[in-house]
Amino acid sequence: MKGNEASSTQRTGSVSIRSVAERAGVSIATVSRVLNTPDKVSATTADRVRAAIQDLEYRPNLFAKGLLTKRSRVIGVSLPDIHGEFYSELMFKLDERACELGYHLLVSSNAHRVNSGPENGFALDLVDGLIVMITERSGVELDLDGINRIDHPVVVIGIDEPGLDVETIVVDNVAGARKAVEHLVQATTPDRCYFVGAHRGNIDSESRLGAFCDVLKAHGHEPRADQIARREFSFDWGWDWAQSMLDEGKLEDTAVFAANDEIAIGIANAARDRGVEIPEQLRIVGFDDSQLCSLVRPKLSSVRMPVKEIGFAAIEAIIRRIEEPESAPRHARLAASFIPRQSSASPEEH
Amino acid sequence: MKGNEASSTQRTGSVSIRSVAERAGVSIATVSRVLNTPDKVSATTADRVRAAIQDLEYRPNLFAKGLLTKRSRVIGVSLPDIHGEFYSELMFKLDERACELGYHLLVSSNAHRVNSGPENGFALDLVDGLIVMITERSGVELDLDGINRIDHPVVVIGIDEPGLDVETIVVDNVAGARKAVEHLVQATTPDRCYFVGAHRGNIDSESRLGAFCDVLKAHGHEPRADQIARREFSFDWGWDWAQSMLDEGKLEDTAVFAANDEIAIGIANAARDRGVEIPEQLRIVGFDDSQLCSLVRPKLSSVRMPVKEIGFAAIEAIIRRIEEPESAPRHARLAASFIPRQSSASPEEH
DNA sequence: CTGAAAGCGCTTACAG
DNA sequence: CTGAAAGCGCTTACAG
Lengths: 350, 350
Description:
- Two copies of one chain form a homodimer.
- Chain A has helices spanning 5-9, 17-24, 28-36, 43-56, 62-69, 84-100, 111-114, 140-149, 173-185, 203-218, 235-247, 261-273, 292-295, 307-323, and strands at 74-78, 104-108, 129-133, 154-157, 167-172, 193-198, 228-231, 254-258, 282-285, 302-304, 331-335, 337-339.
- The first copy, chain A, has 350 residues and is of the alpha/beta class.
- Among the domains of chain A are: 3-69, 434 Repressor (Amino-terminal Domain); 173-305 and 338-349, Rossmann fold, CATH 3.40.50.2300.
- In chain A, the strands form three sheets. Chain A has a six-stranded parallel beta sheet. In chain A, strands 7-6-8-9 form a four-stranded parallel beta sheet, with helices on both faces. A two-stranded antiparallel sheet of chain A has the order 10-12.
- The interface between A and B is large, with 61 and 60 residues.
- Chain A binds a DNA duplex (16 and 16 nucleotides) through residues 16-18, 26-30, 32-33, 36, 40-42, 45, 60-70.
């Protein structure tokens, strides 16, 4: 019966399927069936077993279970060393959806762990599948091989190469970025537009730059080298870049497309501290549409990354791969939309 | 030999300790020893076994291993539904330290999962120990019981109650908050100081409020009800609060201690949008010392949460509990330091 | 230093 | 519907 004192005070750790079987007066096979295939057990027996399970606070040993079923209901998540909002939002969405579907998340933010060789006892062998986010092109040749060789279902976020024989989810940076740059070019001539991004190896930054160049060319302007600056996704980089532009007297009456919101805000702060008015003398658009955009003044125009959609899609995808390994890998492309705000308003809107 | 074609193309999933033993011409016991207790194996045998392991890309089945050793080198992390920077910084630090020590992280942001009963196949049974972060007092009575009954080593972050027989790590909110309020009271009389925080159930918010009240009392002023406002940790709440204060003409010439940076920035933005100068007419201090503090203008004074220290300490603690279960649980208290910036500068500093 | 054997706690055909 | 038995892939005394 419930509430048995002897059983409720003992540590649950020592309760095995055997103890449950004894208490319920059945075999361990029947206990297992009650847990896994209750249809194959008579209702009365099942009730008796369930009562025993409750009394003893029995929980199956997942190692033993995994040894047989080769399933843990754990999904591995490998993230690059990204920072802040995007990362935490993605994690929450991944966790939320995984939880709803009865899975758990094993997380590692060290991208290098993914491709680590067999030699280091990698706990990812415990997972049923792997979600890998990639943001850097460096060493991707190696990675492609490494990813294809992972002996688990894999979903890759951030890159979709022909060589990748796994499920992929990418964001259509280009379309979103195009809209942003078109917006800038409408009120600022292409020769006075600037791109400030991360380093060359960053996939997102480079594709946003590609869109920037495309639009300028479409408007009859071949981008000059000095219209393109690269370093990193940081507030400080935006600040430094703006300072040197200000020192050269080149920042006024320009428009800047920054590869993320932090860079954009660094630029905006430097400009304001030196008396350059936004958007009157300098129009700015960021990328990511982070919460920052609405916190700063003037509010920052940006391109919205569909973070929650990525998280949702990634979980759906990996679980499909896990539960239907024979299905063909799909390749999803999510849209990024331009969100105009005060920081890039054109003269007539001021 | 290395590079054997047949073996390098086969799926590693099917390679068991048996295949390695056969290839190396030894028993499976010896293979196991090479992996776990190499001292007990002769050097030449060990080399032969290692070669076989490499050739076959053998990786031990962690379920089988866990079944025997009852260890997975996975640490469970249960976080409340916190947002943004604090969360991601904490996660990164946890992961970094765990990685260095050869552990992995199983993460869940749903606090309710921790106390979930035995009935739902909780993957946390795979973990060696659990780091639980608690921020809400509601239902803690239940939780204390639940936490004490978890049959794994546990480290609790955020609360340190007599009833908790586990390792705890807390931040000394009070000392940090005191310094912040003392700073405000030096240039603004206590009757014109306000506290804007989260809801009553939030542990951090309430302890910061406690410090606020203490300091006011120490300066001979009993806080009025209207000096204390509670709702949530959000930009919008700060904004709304400031709007109603402005509507009543009460915001000017006051000082505000906000329970986090977001609230503080909401207040600052509302004030600025209505022409109230900071810090001349309104002095503000936030809490957390997030990156936002340096991004906004004027820069926001804040109290620094030792996030990295918390993460580091939590991993150290849980691993100590795991590896030395008999050692007495410790109770750590980390300091929070006041970081003055422009937003709360007193008149003589302007 | 090495191997044969027992056993960790489960699941799952196979009989009944 | 139920049970006895085999076996998942390891580790670890126990002999030698």
